[in-house]
Amino acid sequence: MPELPEVETVRRGLAPTMEGATIARLELRRPDLRFPLPPELPEAVGAKRILSLGRRAKYLLMDLEDDLTIISHLGMSGSFRVEEGDGSETPGDFHHPRSKDEKHDHVIFHLGPANRRLRVIYNDPRRFGFMHLWKRSQLDSYPAFVGLGPEPTGNALDAGYLAGRFLGKNQPLKGALLDQNVIAGLGNIYVCEALWRAHLSPLRKAGTLVTLTGRPKKELVLLTEAIRAVIADAIAAGGSSLRDHIQTDGSLGYFQHSFSVYDREGQACGTPGCNGTVARVVQSGRSSFYCAGCQN
Predict the structure, then answer these.
(1) Which of 12, 29, 127, 286 is catalytic?
(2) Which residues, other chains included, contact 43 with Cβ-Cβ below 8 Å and sequence gap of 6+?
(3) C-beta separation of 71 from 61 below 8 A
(4) One digit per residue, pLDDT tens: the chain, 296 residues?
(5) Which of 5, 263, 285, 291 is 20 to 30 A from residue 135's alpha carbon, by CA?
(6) Quick check: is 58 catalytic?
(7) Given this model, what pLDDT does residue 88 score?
(8) 3-state secondary structure the chain
(9) Which of 55, 58, 98, 119 is the catalytic position?
(10) What pTM value is reported for the model?
(11) Do residues 110 and 25 touch, judged by C-beta distance below 8 A?
(12) Is 3 noted as a catalytic residue in this protein?
């Protein structure tokens, strides 16, 4: 599944084309993706102006006129591309093959005047993505958003907040950080990376980072800073771009080449002065990569 940085880079890539544009026509080439597409979607969004593109956790939000929002999730292999005129090529250097087979072009946004032929195309070979239509004023009631924690990029995430969530918890730190009710949009890759930067083991109990009086220990302050930094670095680099995920210009980010522990089992730890080796353990069905030598 795409993680937060991938969705944020898609949002930034689409914004110059979509924000302020009018949806001349929305074309649905099949009735469903992971879930049925709202049959009223084309009529509801036709002739509507796109006010802005946003993001909540790992969901892309297209805010339209008349209090409407299209909520989109990329699933395993979903991607957007922008095409203008008759050309089907988009700029960018490809690091992995990308589907351009029209049979996987499932949703097409035809934007602006008909004679301009500007299209934003959603392609999804595995069809695990989805789109829903919701009232913008009622986004907090969208089932996937109910109870979501703060964004790892926002000011609401600080050590004091995490201390309140971790107090008395015997849950392993990795699981506590993956809880979307604690932090929205933080996924497996970047949890591994943040824990490495903070020199904390994914196996450590979350409650050990909080004092008996409920205040954050120095280690929790460092972890909070590491979470924010690793997400910022990934967004700046264009996301991890693992497997099928690409940016809207067709290029791939290269943050995966600078991963410090994720998917580096058996390799030397990159912490200066550490002679440890990156190990992999499975926690709740997910791989955790860490160095037992410097993460404790």
Answers:
(1) 286
(2) none
(3) yes
(4) 678 988 998 999 899 999 999 999 999 999 999 999 999 999 999 999 999 999 999 999 999 999 999 999 999 888 898 888 765 433 223 233 445 668 899 999 999 876 677 999 999 999 999 999 999 999 999 999 999 999 999 889 999 999 999 999 999 999 999 999 999 999 999 999 999 999 999 999 999 999 999 999 999 999 999 999 999 998 888 777 555 556 666 666 656 667 999 999 999 999 999 999 999 999 999 999 999 999 99
(5) 5
(6) yes
(7) 44
(8) CCCHHHHHHHHHHHHHHHCCCEEEEEEECCCECCCECCCCHHHHHCCCEEEEEEEECCEEEEEECCCEEEEEECCCCCEEEEEECCCCCCCCCCCCCCCCCHHHEEEEEEECCCCCCEEEEEECCCCCCEEEEEEHHHHHHCCCCCCCCCCCCCCCCCHHHHHHHHCCCCCEHHHHHHCCCCCCCCCHHHHHHHHHHCCCCCCCEHHHHECCCCCECHHHHHHHHHHHHHHHHHHHHCCCCCCCCCCCCCCCCCHHHHCCCCCCCCCECCCCCCCCEEEEEEECCEEEEEECCCCC
(9) 58
(10) 0.88
(11) yes
(12) yes
The residue from 3, 6, 8, 219 that is catalytic is 3
The CB density around residue 283, as the number of other CB atoms within 10 Å, is 15
pLDDT in tens, 30-39: 999 999 999 9
Q: Which fold has domain 159-291?
A: Helicase, Ruva Protein; domain 3 (1.10.8)
Q: Taking the domains of the chain in order of start, what are their residue ranges?
A: 4-141, 159-291
- The fourth-level CATH superfamily of domain 4-141 is MutM-like, N-terminal (3.20.190.10)
